[in-house]
Amino acid sequence: EADIYQTPRYLVIGTGKKITLECSQTMGHDKMYWYQQDPGMELHLIHYSYGVNSTEKGDLSSESTVSRIRTEHFPLTLESARPSHTSQYLCASTDTGTGYNEQFFGPGTRLTVL
Amino acid sequence: GQNIDQPTEMTATEGAIVQINCTYQTSGFNGLFWYQQHAGEAPTFLSYNVLDGLEEKGRFSSFLSRSKGYSYLLLKELQMKDSASYLCAVRDPTGANNLFFGTGTRLTVIP
Question: Which pLDDT score is estimated for A1?
Answer without folding.
Answer: 56
